[in-house]
Design a protein that fits this description.
heterodimer, A: 594 residues, alpha+beta, Aldehyde Ferredoxin Oxidoreductase,  A, domain 1, Aldehyde Ferredoxin Oxidoreductase Protein, subunit A, domain 3, B: 147 residues, Alpha-Beta Plaits, two-stranded antiparallel ribbon, 16% helix, binds iron/sulfur cluster, metal ion binding (chain A), oxidoreductase (chain A), Tungsten_al_ferr_oxy-like_C (chain A), electron transfer activity (chain A), Ald_Fedxn_OxRdtase_N (chain A)
């Protein structure tokens, strides 16, 4: 063992109830790297697997990786929590300035436990830990909250990260998100509601400390080489040019873009909401997560005339493929300005736009089918009626009545009450914008975050027509493992072409983690299994997952979905996951359990 | 002799690559702020980014305020140089700078732009440039630079 200190994590554990922090120095770097692995380790230590998500003692965890701040694109933070959406251990990832702010504040992770006596904001810096009463922010939308928090928690301007929730988080919506620095989100599975249940309106992380440079002589050169690869090789071009909305036309072409609650997978109007259309008509500027020279954040402008004498309000809204899909084709909206306006409203409420959009799409179809009425929805919900859909976003965020209270817990929860589960587009959670076929539907249903990013299933579907269950499951299992390595580091997943094993080994070696440089695969595997064990310990049964009927009615470029094959894939992948999440075998070949 | 100007900040994406490079290469620090250039938004990221940077005053009020001669005017005009061994961490230079371009770290050590240009190579959008010190360069170049 070269250096024991290298194995340690520096974690701030803050108890909101007592208003006290505790600095914990915990071993485990060699077992779990950081990020996803560290969040799992911390949930094992501080979490209560069988208590409800809103139990005040449950931890809300923010963890970064060994290379955060030290290398380009190591720019994300992993949020670990028990999800109020499914009551399972969950993760959500976001960038903005959150990761570097935590690094420069001097922590590998922040763990928040307890419930504040009044609505509060936590301020954490390298020489500051403070809980501030912000009861007067109750009900404030995400953007107003951000503006006011800049004043309330003064200091470190430009070098801080502001995490906050909107009404949806305060109201406990199962898909309330945490907004990070205006344009990024811990989006999925309800981290925002966990924050709300703790009476925590905001977290301000001040990255105001100075850390020593890595001692390794090759550091500057290694940084430069990676920076050059990222900025000049063209491999990031697709992310900063049109961004992910570049997917719209190819997906539509491949009959893989969900339209109107997945009634169709392509439509002649796709060009209206293509990445090209957004870039030409609405793109205002680009932004970046701190420490990332790529700058994939696309910000569009919505100019709204609020008085007939040509008075305008301007909204700046970040867009990407997934939010665009959920506020656009899925809801039958094909005007890019309206797509952004719906998005903006969900964002203000602090709702995950993917879940909110897809849940609303179910509500529109349920309206068409007479399962729910205008008495429930307050506005008449129709595909393409942006004004009504925008208003519905507000109603979900504000939990306006019994119907919206249920819809705010997810389309399946509402369907369980009203009927219509067959056409609720829920794959573990509301689907993301890829109707690529059996592999993707099975993968999102079973996989850890129920996210399109858990595996590369959506791109696998686009390249493979042959049906081979064993081969697909093998791909999913391997691909997940590579991604978990990156989410332990925590690199942006867009950087997966850059951070190949040799580069990761050099990075870890340069940072003084020589042993890890030779064993990061085992550590990532360990972290992956720990995550699965936690998900299962909190009640997840992969074998009990189901894919709703709507997904068997879909036609892709491969033809109609083969329901029998899809079910075989789901079942086989569920078996693989159950095995991954089984208690560690006792033989010594296994890396030590977390 | 050259001076550093943030010429094209409208293009800035707020990646902080420049300040991280300065901290790393010039100030041998892992920091967002122990750097000669610091990136701020002017009230939330939606309002665009500003570079907090030495404007190379001549004469330089920071140098004039320094009681030990640690901060001194560059001989050929434009900007200042800092001799760390002479600095007593009194913070007078930072207090004297009209544009807050000098950052004091936790120990009170000043960090200021040395007009060396190490950062410019790391900017992915060409926002930053070294220009000739003897050609007058107004700071408003940030907004009305023409190629
Ligand atoms: S540090 Fe400030 S006072 Fe000194 S030369 Fe630069 S801009 Fe002028
Ligand atoms: S020119 Fe040199 S000293 Fe000035 S900000 Fe750039 S790297 Fe730092
Ligand atoms: S490197 Fe360029 S784009 Fe990035 S923050 Fe600095 S000036 Fe802005």
């Amino acid at each position: 063992m070269s250096n024991e200190a290298n194995d340690l994590f520096r974690v701030l554990v803050y108890d909101l109830e007592r208003g006290r922090g505790e600095l914990a120095i915990l071993p485990g770097r060699r077992q779990c790297l950081g990020g996803s692995g560290l969040a799992a380790l911390l949930y094992e230590k501080y979490g209560l697997p069988t208590a409800p998500a809103f139990d005040p003692r449950q931890p809300l965890i923010f963890a970064i990786g060994p290379a955060t701040g030290y290398f380009p694109l190591m720019s994300k933070t992993v949020c670990g929590f028990k999800s109020p959406y499914n009551e399972n251990y969950a993760e959500s990832h976001a960038g903005g300035r959150s990761a570097l702010a935590l690094r420069f504040a001097g922590y590998d992770a922040l763990v928040v436990v307890g419930k504040a006596p009044r609505l509060s904001t936590l301020v954490v810096g390298s020489r500051r830990i403070e809980r501030i009463d912000v009861h007067y922010l109750a009900g404030a939308d995400v953007f107003t909250t951000g503006k006011l928090l800049r004043k309330i928690a003064e200091g470190a301007s430009g070098h801080r990260s502001i995490l906050r929730i909107g009404p949806a988080g305060e109201n406990g919506s199962g898909y309330a998100c945490i907004n990070v620095d205006t344009y990024r989100h811990f989006g999925r599975l309800g981290a925002g509601a966990v924050m709300g249940s703790k009476n925590l309106k905001g977290i301000v992380i001040q990255g105001d400390g100075d850390l020593p440079l890595p001692a390794d002589k090759g550091y500057a050169k290694l940084f430069k080489d990676i920076h050059e690869k990222v900025t000049s090789s063209g491999m990031m071009e697709k992310y900063h040019n049109l961004g992910t909305p570049a997917n719209v036309l190819p997906l539509n072409e491949l009959k893989s873009l969900p339209w109107r609650n997945l009634a169709a997978t392509s439509d002649s109007e796709a060009d209206k909401i293509s990445g090209e259309a957004f870039a030409e008509k609405l793109l205002m500027h680009n932004a970046a997560c701190a420490g990332c020279p790529v700058g994939c954040i696309h910000v569009g402008m919505v100019r709204e005339m609020f008085s007939s004498s040509h008075r305008f309000a301007i909204h700046q809204v970040a867009y990407d493929h997934e939010p665009n899909f959920a506020a656009g084709p899925m809801l039958g909206v094909v005007d890019p300005v309206e797509v952004l306006a719906i998005n903006d409203m969900a964002d203000r409420q602090g709702l995950d736009i993917i879940s909110a959009g897809v849940a609303l799409a179910w509500a529109v179809e349920a309206t068409q089918k007479g399962v729910i009425s205008e008495k429930d929805t307050e506005v008449k919900l129709t595909f393409g009626d942006a004004a009504a859909l925008k208003r519905a976003m507000w109603l979900i965020g504000h939990k306006a009545n019994d119907f919206y209270a249920l819809l705010g817990q997810g389309a399946m929860v509402a369907a369980a009450h009203y009927g219509g589960a067959d056409y609720a587009c829920v794959l573990g959670q509301e689907m993301a914008g890829y109707a690529t076929g059996e592999t993707y539907f099975a993968s999102q249903t079973v996989a850890f975050r129920h996210s399109h990013l858990d595996t590369g299933a959506y791109s696998y579907d686009q390249k493979h027509k042959e049906q081979d269950v064993a081969k697909v499951v093998d791909f999913l299992v391997k691909d997940e493992r590579e991604r978990v390595l990156l989410t332990c580091l925590v690199a942006c997943l867009f950087a997966r072409e850059v951070y190949k094993p040799e580069v990761i080994a050099s990075v870890l070696g340069c940072l003084g983690h020589e042993e890890l440089a030779g064993s990061f695969d085992a550590a990532a595997e360990n972290a992956r299994r720990a995550r699965w064990r936690l998900k299962i310990a909190t009640g997840y049964d992969p074998r009990a997952t189901r894919i709703p009927k709507r997904f068997t009615e879909v036609t892709t470029w491969k033809g109609p979905v083969d329901a029998v094959y899809m079910e075989a894939l789901r079942a086989a992948y569920a078996e693989a996951v159950a095995e991954l999440g089984a208690p560690p075998a006792t033989d010594q070949a296994q890396p030590p359990a977390l | 002799m050259k001076i550093h100007r943030a010429l094209r900040m409208e293009r800035c994406i707020g990646c902080h690559s420049c300040s991280l490079a300065c901290a790393r290469l010039v100030y041998k620090s892992m920091s967002w702020q122990t750097a000669g250039i610091r990136i701020r938004s002017t009230g939330g990221v939606s309002s665009g980014f500003q570079a907090i940077l030495c404007l190379a005053c001549d004469p330089a009020p920071c140098a004039a305020a320094c009681p030990t001669g640690a901060m001194s005017q560059r001989k050929s005009g434009g900007g200042v140089t800092l001799k760390k061994s002479l600095c007593i961490q009194c913070g007078q230079c930072a207090a004297a700078c009209p544009v807050d371009a000098i950052n004091l770290d936790a120990a009170g050590n000043p960090a200021v732009c040395l007009h060396c240009g190490q950062c410019t190579a790391y900017c992915p959008h060409d926002c930053l440039e070294l220009v000739e010190a003897d050609t007058p360069a107004a700071p408003c170049l940030e907004s009305c630079h023409v190629e």
